[in-house]
Amino acid sequence: MPTRTLRRTTEFPLEAGFRALMDDAESGVLLLDSDRRVADANPAALKLLGITRERARAAEASTLLRTGVAGEDLARDVFAASRLEREAVLHTPGAGDVPVLLAATRIGRPPWALVTLRDLTSTWRMQQELRRHERLATLGQLSAGVAHEIRNPLAGIGTSAQVLLKRFDAGDDRARFAQVILDEVARLDRIVTSLLQYARPRQPELKSVRLADCVARVVALSRANAERQGVTLESEVAAKLAPVYVDADLVHQVLLNVTLNALQAMPSGGTLRYEVRVVRGRRPPRGPGRRAADRLEGAERRNGDTASAGRGRDPVWLEAQQVRVIDTGVGIPRGTLAKLFDPFFTTRPSGTGLGLSISQTIMQEHGGSIAVDSKEGRGTTVLLNFPLEKRNGERRQLDAGPVEGNVARRR
């Protein structure tokens, strides 16, 4: 059996087949000698830990298998039992905190240890997103109940204020205060309406619509405000685009909300550009809890979805029409991007924080997706993806091809 010298005084046999498996493994693999030093590491482990092979060789295992738990020593635990498997968050030298599934086996005499590290970052993100959807679903149910309870007394307040307003002369200060009450009641009613729309979105009435017409209508409605701010509106529509089956009113609502956000991000002027094109990419995952009896659910089960890809089935690739809304505004801080679609999150004193949440719900109800990318000082890009569907709601399954447009990118 051929041997490979790993340290000056200690040798561990590595057959060619084992070496090939170690190098080709998707999980990180560390080989630790009896002195708890790294004898070898495969490329996946080097990438996971963010270090070079030269730095890894002969390094103390405790410096690479370090966690934030006081008194925990994974390097010691690896040799304490013949077999160890546990989840941990490693403080890696070059990649920051990385959640991993660590599995270790003790081999040979004096004992060596073979340690595998499976990156759990994507799994943890999926779990966090699932918990987020569950919280939002609960919040939606609670919000709907609260909104109904608020509307009844709100109507009484508004009616009483109208009666009082009619009894006062126009120059009476009491008339001014009564008008303030009516204005605030109207504002509260708009907030409650938005809350109900988020909590209980109406089912889209799908009809054959050209997205270019939706964009043109939004541009016409926004032109006056844009000109007052010194914002130039531009649009580019790809040739020979087929109609899509969407609810035009709901699409207008999404586009107007995105446009309003873009204009508010350009108080000193700039350029707001709309692009409509065809893209191909993976089907976006459906958020749980929004509409369990979605009419397209049966088609998803027949054709497969991105979730099933993890169980050995091929993912479904979709052709979609995409609307890009690109502004040259102030941009969004990196820490804020992750919270954009959270209900009631807003950076504006007068905002309700429901605009983008409602827009996301509308896009999900259409089987589409919304994504935002931004860089401070350069502007923001919003991607609205509308899958092309047949009239009966069955989505078209395409052969796998290059992903385009599922992730927002700067120009």
What does this structure look like?
With 411 residues, the chain is α+β, with helices and mostly antiparallel strands. Helix content is 41%, strand content 24%. The chain is built from 13 helices and 14 strands. Strand 3 (28-32) and strand 4 (38-41) form a beta hairpin. Helix 6 runs antiparallel to helix 7 and helix 9 packs antiparallel against helix 13. The chain is elongated, with a radius of gyration of 29 Å. The model is unreliable at 1-11, 284-317 and 390-411 (pLDDT under 50).
CATH class of the largest domain: Alpha Beta
Characterize the biggest β-sheet. 5 strands, antiparallel
Integer count of domains: 3
Structural class: alpha+beta
In CATH terms, what is the architecture of the largest domain? 2-Layer Sandwich
* Order of adjacent strands in the largest pleated sheet: 4-3-7-6-5
The residue ranges in which pLDDT falls below 50 over 5 or more consecutive positions are 1-11, 284-317, 390-411
Measured by DSSP, the beta-strand proportion falls in 15-25%
**Tell me, what's the shape?**
elongated
Rg, Å, rounded = 29 Å
Count of DSSP E strands? 14
Look at the structure and name the CATH superfamily of the largest domain.
Histidine kinase-like ATPase, C-terminal domain
Kindly report how far apart the N and C termini lie: 56 Å
Helix tally?
13
Query: How much helicity do the residues have?
Result: 40-55%
CATH topology of the largest domain: Heat Shock Protein 90
Q: What is the ordering of alpha helices and beta strands? A: EEHEEHHHHEEEHHEHEEHEHHEHHEE
Mean pLDDT: 76
